[in-house]
TrEMBL record:
It comes from Sinomonas terricola. Its EC number is 2.5.1.-. Belongs to the UPP synthase family. Z-FPP synthase subfamily. Its cofactor is Mg(2+). The keyword Methyltransferase does not apply. Catalyzes the condensation of isopentenyl diphosphate (IPP) with allylic pyrophosphates generating different type of terpenoids. NCBIfam families: PRK14828.1, uppS. It is an enzyme of class 2 (transferase). Binds 2 magnesium ions per subunit. Homodimer. Substrate binds at residues 34-38, 50, 78-80, 84, 202, 208-210. One of its GO terms (molecular function) is transferase activity. Mg(2+) binds at residues 33, 221. This is Isoprenyl transferase.
């Protein structure tokens, strides 16, 4: 049941007051799922859902800035999504490119691309490369955009780069195999040098990772929300953070 406006505002403020600064996650991963289903509710084309989802991304990043979250990883386009119809894929990549342009105009955000640029249209791959190459602003909200991304591919790419690095330094591959550990692979992931996600949120009611941050999310907390991404509200986000704050995190047990 939807709350009246004044009660909704009161409830939202109460939720935020309950959150303590030390309970706010440093890094949140978000699977922005449900754009097409949201559009179908209104008999609208998929592109309308994707545009509404893009607008929600910018709104969501504003909430993260307000709450002091430092790193956000957005799952925007998976390698599996590349199999969609050519017309829908062209619309979707155009909308993602527009979203990246808006992020480029935001001086408080630094952007890092995650994925396989060779799978993307040239105009989108170029935008991602330019954004990633920009110097980071001071005290930024750091946003990883997973576009043309697959978790298994990321791990394969990390191992491939690890081997190339070892060969470039003349290291014996047999010796590398003997001493190889988790940190060796982590150094070559797309998120190298960043904290692993504390919390991973998926909208739309689906309860699976779909290959998102498979390595990095080993000890993440997961929160699955019924709301479709364009309809995801600030109160839904605060509920997710309240749920996270109430958990006792266990690392390896």
């Amino acid at each position: 049941m939807e709350l009246p406006g004044f009660l909704y505002g009161y409830y939202e403020r109460r939720l935020q007051r309950e959150l303590k600064p030390d309970s706010i996650p440093r890094h949140i991963g978000v699977m922005v799922d449900g754009n097409r289903r949201w559009a179908r509710q209104f008999n609208a084309p998929s592109s309308q859902g994707h545009r509404a989802g893009a607008d929600k991304i910018h709104e969501f990043l504003g909430w993260c800035r307000e709450l002091g979250i430092r790193v956000v990883t957005l799952y925007m386009l998976s390698t599996d999504n590349m199999n969609r119809s050519s017309d829908e894929l062209a619309e979707l990549t155009d909308i993602i490119a527009e979203t990246l342009d808006r992020l480029d105009d935001d001086p408080t955000v630094s952007v890092h691309a995650m994925g396989a640029p060779e799978l993307l249209p040239a105009h989108l791959a170029d935008r991602l490369a330019r954004l990633t190459a920009k110097p980071s602003p001071s005290e930024p909200l750091h946003v990883n955009v997973a576009v043309g991304y697959g978790g298994r591919r990321e791990i394969v790419d990390a191992v491939r780069e690890l081997l190339r690095d070892a060969l470039s330094r003349g290291e014996d591959i047999g010796e590398l195999a003997e001493r190889l550990d988790v940190d060796d692979i982590s150094r070559f992931l797309y998120t190298a040098g960043q904290p692993d996600p504390d919390l991973v949120i998926r909208t739309s009611g689906e309860q699976r990772l779909s290959g998102f941050l498979m390595w990095q999310s080993a000890y993440s907390e997961f929160y699955f929300c019924e709301a479709l991404w364009p309809a995801f509200r600030r109160v839904d986000f605060l509920r997710a953070l309240r749920d996270y704050a109430g958990r006792q995190r266990r690392f390896g047990s």
